[in-house]
Amino acid sequence: MSSTPPKPSRLAPYKEALAALSQRTRTPLPSLAVSFAILHELTAILPLVGFFYGARALGVGEGLVRAVAQPRGIVSGQDEGASTQYLSRFRDTWAGQRFKEWMVEGEMRAERVGRRYGWFGFEKGSKVDGGSLESRSAEAEAALVSGRIAGDVANAVVAYALTKAFLPVRIGLSLYLSPALSRGVLQPIGSAFARLFRR
Question: Please, how many CA atoms are within 13 Å of residue 6, restricted to the half-sphere of its CB?
């Protein structure tokens, strides 16, 4: 009787890569994973807040939402100039479509956070109208295209989309800084706790 060898896990290549990184940087794997998670969240929260207040200070949130979300052929009271033609071409690209998807996601998240905490002009604790995720997504896209998104909601939408666009940079930065955070912060804290409980 021959037994079939066990099927390798889908995570096996990642485990090997992480083990190699841990070995190369002389950092324990659990500490490396925790430091990556902390840095990944920080590189999401800090740019989100920075982009929000930057869009708010510069007053560009509504304009960017209108420019990216506006359907082709609709020009808002201005002649078809070079910038309008460029934006029209950008909207038709994969990147433009992806950015629009992120803006729809951002509008849904801004509404959820706004209703929960009473931000962006929403009443605190108010409930989102019932419906499936697809129907709420369609409503968010309709609001985006119609130009009904304004003020801080538009700034939040732009900040969310820009933060999503910077995901590759955020991951690279988190990977690069993880060993240093692990060795400089997490390992000393871990050894201080170990000494405290050894006594």
Answer: 4
Q: Give the count of beta carbons closer than 10 Å to the beta carbon of residue 173.
A: 15
Neighbours of 7 (CB within 10 A): 7
Cβ 188 vs Cβ 155: under 8 Å: no
- The conformation of residue 119, written as its DSSP 8-state character, comes to -
Reference 110, options 43, 48, 37; nearest CA is 48
Token pair 């998807």: residue: 101
Nearest 5°: CA angle at 151, between 87 and 116?
120
- pLDDT tens for each residue of 17-42: 777 888 888 888 888 888 988 999 99
Of 133, 78, 142, 84, residue with least CA distance to 109:
133
Q: What is the pLDDT of residues 40-70, one digit of tens each?
A: 999 999 999 999 999 989 988 887 777 777 6
124 to each of 113, 116, 117, 195, how far by Cα in Å? 9, 6, 5, 46
The widest CA-to-CA distance across the chain, in whole angstroms, is: 79
Task: Extract the residue ranges of the chain whose pLDDT is less than 70.
Answer: 1-3, 5-6, 10-11, 14, 70-88, 128-150, 199
Number of neighbours of residue 199 by Cβ within 10 angstroms: 4
The Cα 99–Cα 93 span in angstroms is 10
In sequence order, the 6+-apart residues with CB closer than 8 A to the CB of 187 are 27, 28, 31
Determine the 3-state secondary structure of 130 from DSSP.
Answer: coil
Q: How far is CA 44 from the centre of its chain?
A: 6
